[in-house]
Design goal:
Structural class: alpha/beta
Strand order of the largest sheet: 11-12-10-13-14-9-15
Distance between the termini: 29 Å
Length: 683
C-alpha cells in the first residue's frame, strides 16, 4: 500500500486494510476501534518469544513453544463438531495437533505426512498426552516463525497472528506529517517526531515505558489537541459582538444589604468577573465553579438583577422542578416587588403556562425559572439577555456551544457547577469557557462533622437519630441499592426503610431511582415541609436542593462510594444555621484505598482537595460526572502522572492565543485527536 501524506488514511474505515472484512470490523468496533487511527492506541501488553526450538520431551504445559515435528497420521472424524486431529512426533516423543473449523484439504496442505514442519503455539496436556490446539504458526520455513511477536490484549474472534498482521500493516503505511509542535516544546521530548513516537510505542522493547520521551510526546499531543479545541471555541464565542449591558449596581447593593450574611471575597471576585463580561461588547460564556454551599446561587441572582436593570429578560434553568421552585421562592424574598418573577414547570396547568408564555413573549416577565423545558421552541422570549444554568456539570462541549447560541448574540450565558475539578483537569473539562472559582465558604456556613461508624454499632446510630429528631432535626439515610443483591453485600434502601419504619412509625419516607417522577417530587416537598423526619434514599438526593432542617446524613457502605460522590452527598446537610453531622457506616474489613478515602473525608470539608485526592486514588475517568462532562477520553495522558504535561499544554495554549493568528499548522493534530462534530466549526 502506497504511503499517504495526509491524515485521511488514519481516519479511514477499517475495511480499507488488507485482510479486514466486515466480521473483523464489527469485532473491533465493539472495542471502540472505529477507524485505523484507533488501532494505534491498542497498546502491546507483552511479547511472545518464539525463538529457539524445544524437543517434545522438554515441553511445558501452558507455555507458548516452538517445535519441529513430522506428521504421521490424520484423524478426520465424520461426526459433526468433533475436531480434526493430526498425530505428530519427533525423535523424543509424540504430540497431537488439534484443529477446529479447518477443512481436511487445508490440514493436509500445511501438515503433509512425513515432512518436517515447524509449529508454534500454546502447549496443553490431555489424557497425559501433549497437544496443541489450532497452532498459531505452521510453516516449513522455520525462519518465519522463530522470532519475537508482540502480544496485544486481543478481542474475542481475532487471533494473535492476524491482529499482528493488521498492526504491522498500519505501521508500515504510517503517513508522514509535518511537525506541528513548536521547537521549544519539542525540546521537552528530545525532538521526538510523532511518526517515530508511534513506531516506538508499538516496539516490544518499549512495553510499559511510560516515562520515555516518545510516550510523553504522544501524551502531550492529545492534551494539546483537547485544549486547542476548547480554546478555539472560546475565541469564537468571544468574537461574537453584542450590545453591552448598562447597569448602576444600585439593585445589587440593595440585595447585598438585605442578606443576613456577608459575601466572601471569592463571591465578590466572581461578581466582578461577570459584571465586566456583561458590560463588554463580547458575548459572555462563563462558568462559576464552586464547592457545595459556597454561595454560587446568590452570585447568579445578583447578576441577574444587573441584566434586568439593563432591560433584558433572564432565564434560570434548574435540573429539577423542586430546585427551580426553591430558586423561585428565594428570588421572591430577595428581589424588589416591581420585578416580575415567574416559574414554568411541567406541572404548571394550561392556563398558567399560557399566561407565563404571554408575559415572556411581551417582555412583561423579567425572570423566569424552570427546567430545560424553558428552551422549547414554543416559548418565545421578547428580549432574552441572560441564561443561567444551575448544576449542569454534565454538559459536554457540544451541548454547551448549542446553549451559547440560544438567545442570540446579545444573550450572555452563565453555568454553575458544584463539582470541584482538580487543577489539571480544568482546561480539559471547561476550557471552552471563562471560569470563576469560588473556594471560600460563607462565614455562616458551619463545617459538617464527619464520623465513621462500624455497621455493628447501628444501635448507637439509632440512639443518635432519636436525639436529633427530638431536637426537630431531619435525617437523610442513604443506601447504594434499591433491592437486595446476591452479588453485592449492600443494605438496600427498601430493607432499611422497613427497618427504620418499625422504630420510627409514620416518620420515614422512601425515595429511589425507580420512584415515579411525580411521586418523587411529592416526597421531596413533604420532606421539605417536615411532614416526616427521615428520608431513606439512594443517591438521587445528590443534586443541590436546600433542606434547611436536614442536619444529619447517614451513608451506608460508605466505602463503596468514591470520595467526590461522598462529598456531594454530605453537602445535602448543613444548609441551615445549625451544626450538621455526616455518619459513614462501614464494615470492619476495609481495603487500603477504602480506609484512605474515609480518612480523607473525615479530615477535610474542602471539595477541591477531596477531588484531587479522589483522582489520585481512582483515576480521573471515574470521578463524579466526568464521563458525561465532555472530558476527553485520554488514551495515554494521565492528570496524576502527567501533571507537568497538562501545565505545559496550558501555557502553550496561552502562547498560541497570543502569538498565532490561525491554527492551520495544528490542523492534522486536531483532525486526528478530536473528531467531534464541533471541529467542523473550527477548521
Amino acid at each position: 500500500m502506497k504511503k499517504m501524506n495526509n491524515y485521511d488514511y488514519l481516519l479511514s474505515d477499517l475495511t480499507k486494510l488488507k485482510g479486514v472484512g466486515k466480521k473483523t470490523t464489527d469485532i473491533l468496533k465493539k472495542k471502540k476501534i472505529n477507524n485505523i487511527f484507533d488501532l494505534l492506541w491498542r497498546l502491546p501488553q507483552s511479547y511472545i518469544d518464539r525463538k529457539g526450538q524445544t524437543k517434545i520431551n522438554e515441553l511445558k504445559a501452558g507455555q507458548v513453544q516452538t517445535i519441529k515435528v513430522f506428521a504421521k497420521k490424520y484423524n478426520f472424524p465424520r461426526i459433526r463438531n468433533l475436531p480434526n486431529r493430526v498425530n505428530c512426533e519427533d525423535e523424543t516423543g509424540k504430540i497431537d495437533c488439534i484443529f477446529f473449523n479447518s477443512y481436511e484439504g487445508y490440514i493436509k496442505k500445511i501438515l503433509p505426512l512425513n515432512e518436517e514442519v515447524t509449529i508454534s503455539g500454546k502447549i496443553n496436556v490431555y489424557n497425559k498426552k501433549y497437544q496443541i490446539t489450532n497452532p498459531t504458526y505452521i510453516s516449513k520455513d522455520s525462519s518465519i516463525i522463530e522470532k519475537t511477536h508482540t502480544k496485544y490484549n486481543l478481542t474475542e474472534g481475532i487471533n494473535e497472528k492476524n491482529y499482528n498482521k493488521i498492526i504491522d500493516q498500519v505501521l508500515k503505511n504510517l503517513p508522514f506529517f509535518d511537525e506541528w509542535l513548536d521547537k521549544k516544546i519539542l525540546l521537552n521530548f528530545n525532538n521526538e517526531t510523532w511518526n517515530n513516537s508511534i513506531l516506538k510505542l508499538h516496539d516490544i522493547k518499549n512495553i510499559g515505558d511510560f516515562k520515555s520521551d516518545f510516550y510523553r510526546r504522544l501524551a502531550f499531543d492529545e492534551i494539546l489537541a483537547s485544549f486547542l479545541i476548547s480554546s478555539e471555541i472560546r475565541k469564537k464565542i468571544k468574537k461574537i459582538k453584542k450590545k453591552s449591558k448598562n447597569f448602576s449596581e444600585i439593585l445589587f447593593k440593595k440585595i447585598v444589604n438585605k442578606l443576613n450574611f456577608n459575601l466572601t471575597n471569592d463571591q465578590f471576585n466572581a461578581l466582578e468577573d461577570i459584571n465586566n463580561d456583561m458590560r463588554s461588547k463580547s458575548k459572555m460564556f462563563r462558568l462559576i465553579q464552586g464547592d457545595v454551599g459556597s454561595g454560587k446561587t446568590i452570585v447568579a441572582l445578583i447578576t441577574a438583577l444587573n441584566a434586568i436593570e439593563s432591560g433584558y429578560q433572564v432565564a434560570f434553568m434548574a435540573p429539577t422542578e423542586i430546585l427551580a421552585k426553591q430558586h423561585f421562592n428565594l428570588t421572591k424574598n430577595l428581589f424588589p416587588n416591581n420585578i416580575n418573577i415567574q416559574i414554568l414547570t411541567g406541572k404548571s396547568d394550561y392556563f398558567t403556562k399560557k399566561k407565563v408564555n404571554e408575559l415572556i413573549s411581551t417582555n412583561k416577565c423579567n425572570i423566569v425559572f424552570g427546567t430545560h423545558s424553558l428552551f422549547q421552541k414554543k416559548i418565545n422570549f421578547k428580549k432574552l439577555g441572560y441564561i443561567i444554568i444551575d448544576e449542569q456539570h454534565k454538559f459536554g462541549v457540544k451541548q454547551r456551544k448549542q446553549l451559547s447560541d440560544k438567545g442570540g448574540n446579545d444573550c450572555d450565558v452563565l453555568l454553575m457547577s458544584a463539582t470541584p475539578i482538580p487543577r489539571t483537569l480544568i482546561m480539559s473539562v471547561y476550557g471552552d469557557m471563562d471560569i470563576s472559582i469560588i473556594k471560600e465558604k460563607p462565614k455562616h456556613r458551619k463545617e459538617i462533622r464527619t464520623y465513621s461508624k462500624l455497621e455493628s454499632k447501628i444501635d448507637d446510630v439509632i440512639k443518635f437519630v432519636k436525639y436529633e429528631i427530638k431536637n426537630k432535626n431531619q435525617v437523610f439515610w442513604v443506601c447504594p441499592l434499591i433491592d437486595e443483591s446476591k452479588k453485592i453485600d449492600h443494605q438496600s434502601a427498601i430493607k432499611k426503610f422497613e427497618f427504620l419504619n418499625n422504630i420510627f412509625p409514620k416518620k420515614v419516607a422512601l425515595l429511589h431511582g425507580k420512584t415515579d417522577q411525580d411521586e418523587k417530587q411529592k416526597i421531596l416537598n413533604d420532606f421539605l415541609n417536615r411532614k416526616f423526619q427521615i428520608l431513606v434514599s439512594t443517591t438521587v438526593i445528590e443534586v443541590g436542593i436546600d433542606f434547611p432542617h436536614a442536619n444529619v446524613i447517614i451513608i451506608e457502605n460508605a466505602n463503596k462510594f468514591g470520595l467526590s460522590q461522598l462529598h456531594q452527598l454530605r453537602g445535602r446537610v448543613g444548609r441551615g444555621n445549625k451544626k450538621a453531622t455526616c455518619i459513614l457506616l462501614i464494615k470492619s474489613t476495609l481495603s487500603v484505598n477504602a480506609k484512605k478515602r474515609i480518612n480523607i473525608l473525615k479530615n477535610s470539608n474542602d471539595g477541591f482537595v477531596i477531588s484531587e485526592e479522589d483522582m489520585k486514588i481512582r483515576g480521573f475517568g471515574d470521578l463524579l460526572g466526568f464521563k458525561q462532562s465532555g472530558i476527553k477520553n485520554f488514551k495515554l495522558a494521565d492528570p496524576v502522572h502527567n501533571e507537568d504535561l497538562f501545565m505545559l499544554a496550558e501555557n502553550e495554549i496561552k502562547r498560541i492565543e497570543k502569538d498565532e493568528k490561525d491554527i492551520q499548522r495544528y490542523k492534522v493534530l486536531l483532525k486526528l485527536y478530536d473528531q467531534a462534530d464541533i471541529i467542523n466549526d473550527i477548521i
